[in-house]
Amino acid sequence: MISKPDILIVEDDEEIAEFLQIGLSAEGYQVSVTHDGHNLVERVARDRPALLILDRMLPGDDGVDLCRQLRADGHETMVLMLTAKDTMDDKIGGLRAGADDYLTKPFGFGELLARLEALLRRTGHGGDAQNLIIDDLRLDLSLKAAFRADKPLALTATEFSLLRFLAENANKVMSREEILKAVWGYDFDPTTNVVEVYISYLRKKVDSKHEIRLIANVRGFGYVLQSPEGD
Questions:
Q1: Closest Cα to residue 132, out of 26, 23, 28, 22?
Q2: How many CB atoms are located within 10 Å of the residue 142 CB?
């Protein structure tokens, strides 16, 4: 199974930070968040994220200065700088401080994702075709297509997102709450049975024609996509 690279978000606006964390996690990235630049250089040295999403205006810190410190210490982590400042001088200042790209607020998630993927390709973390493979199940992330025993599965966009989340966490039991947040983007709702409904859809499409069942319900805990060798 391919593990996507780690991303560190440094953003003091909690709504923006949560929006980015949910969206990027749903895309398969390992995401961490901090709301200030305190000890950022030390954290990058310790955690070694592949990419840093860095707000320019942080409480008590300037993203440009932080980026300059990272580069002065020899850190080559890709930096995508976010800012409300949109003049050409501001952009040039950010890039000269060592940022690899510069995105002005407000921005669309699709544009941010495209820029992020382009930066990661430059470091060898990206790829034209990525696959998640569990037993004879394969998810082609570039095509957003799934195959079981090399036969295509007719999945809706939501079904694919759910299967992808389970595949990225293969052999781990994922709670109903974790699935709701990752796939549908909202927190626990005791009145909805959307997770159960879509798990049922997936089981019919992924498992019903195969002797080995990959999707399991762990009563009282949640759901798991489990390979035979993961038993």
A1: 28
A2: 10
